[in-house]
């Protein structure tokens, strides 16, 4: 697990609801159970500051970092998709983008994150429009046209569009692998486990699930194959993320309080 990616997970899942700020000592302590060393945390933090995701500030508990508005928006959007809150239906129309030039790898990844899949080198499609797509393409400096499109009578159907834009077979296998890989991690946590163990297991669960944001366009049920593995994977994720949440939250609170107490000269013993 890379430190930068883990920091996004930490801020999005635990620190955003707590004001989006934390002392660097707490960041180091909270990523330690994931095997991430302090130098890697500090290097990743510096990089995120340069990229405009974090802003340094002075806290009572020491030097810290605050989410920038851009980062807060991105994490809120990601959280809504991870926990599937406020998901819209489908009106039978696709958002179609025609590019006037090639898209670089980084910007292609950004479109994929927003739910778009490629129909070819210069055409991208999504089951619903994402407002941020315009900003992505403007920043890429590529001219484009954008349409709301539906199928004419007698033409190949939506399933053919989906088959060209996304490899649902590979995505389905990824969901099956997610469950088989994470089941031993989360089921190893019982009522006898420590809060830190529950936190580490839940962190790995959410981190693995978050990767689907870049691969799954969240197609409506009518466009998915029967017995879609993503449904059972989502149920597995929801069940264990909720089960482990109270203990994980206690660990986070304990770490934040411990850093604050240490800064003020109090001992935890």
Summarize it.
By secondary structure, this protein is α+β, with helices and mostly antiparallel strands. The chain contains ten helices and seven strands. A hairpin with a 2-residue loop joins strand 2 and strand 3 (62-67).
Describe the structure.
This protein has helices spanning 3-15, 24-31, 38-50, 69-82, 105-113, 132-140, 158-165, 168-187, 195-210, 229-263; strands at 21-23, 54-59, 62-67, 94-99, 117-120, 123-126, 144-149. The protein is α+β, with helices and mostly antiparallel strands and 269 residues long. The protein has 3 domains: 3-74, Winged helix-like DNA-binding domain superfamily/Winged helix DNA-binding domain (Arc Repressor Mutant, subunit A, Orthogonal Bundle), CATH 1.10.10; 93-149, Alpha-Beta Plaits, CATH 3.30.70; 168-263, no CATH class. The protein has a 4-stranded antiparallel β-sheet. The chain has a 3-stranded antiparallel β-sheet with strand order 1-3-2. The radius of gyration is 21 Å and the shape is globular.
Task: Show the helix and strand layout.
Elements (H helix, E strand, L loop, with lengths): L2 H13 L5 E3 H8 L6 H13 L3 E6 L2 E6 L1 H14 L11 E6 L5 H9 L3 E4 L2 E4 L5 H9 L3 E6 L8 H8 L2 H20 L7 H16 L18 H35 L6
Antiparallel strand pairs: 1-3, 2-3, 4-6, 4-7, 5-6
Helix pairs in contact: 1-4, 1-9, 2-10, 8-9, 8-10, 9-10
Notable features of this structure?
Arc Repressor Mutant, subunit A, alpha+beta, 13% strand, globular, four-stranded antiparallel sheet, Alpha-Beta Plaits
């Amino acid at each position: 697990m890379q430190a930068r990616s883990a920091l996004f997970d930490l801020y999005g899942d635990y620190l955003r609801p707590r004001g989006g700020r934390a002392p660097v000592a707490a960041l180091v302590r909270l990523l330690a159970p994931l095997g991430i060393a302090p130098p890697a945390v500090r290097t990743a933090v510096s990089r995120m500051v340069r990229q405009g995701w974090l802003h340094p500030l002075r806290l009572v508990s020491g030097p810290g970092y605050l989410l920038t508005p851009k980062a807060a928006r991105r994490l809120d959007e990601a959280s809504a998709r991870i926990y599937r809150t406020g998901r819209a239906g489908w009106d039978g129309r696709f958002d179609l983008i025609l590019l006037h030039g090639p898209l670089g790898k980084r910007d292609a990844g950004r479109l994929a994150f927003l739910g778009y899949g490629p129909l070819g080198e210069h055409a991208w499609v999504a089951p619903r429009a994402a407002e941020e797509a315009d900003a992505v393409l403007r920043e890429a400096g590529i001219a484009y046209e954008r349409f709301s499109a539906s199928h004419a009578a007698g033409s190949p159907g939506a399933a053919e569009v989906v088959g060209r834009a996304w490899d649902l077979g590979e995505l389905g296998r990824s969901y099956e692998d997610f469950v088989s890989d994470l089941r031993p991690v989360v089921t190893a946590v019982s009522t006898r486990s420590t809060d830190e163990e529950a936190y580490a297991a839940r962190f790995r669960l959410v981190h693995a699930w978050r990767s689907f944001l870049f691969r799954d366009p969240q197609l409506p049920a009518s466009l998915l194959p029967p017995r879609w593995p993503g449904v059972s994977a989502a149920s597995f994720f929801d069940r264990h993320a909720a089960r482990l949440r109270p203990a994980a939250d206690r660990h986070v609170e304990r770490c934040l309080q411990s850093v604050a107490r240490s800064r003020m000269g109090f001992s935890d013993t």
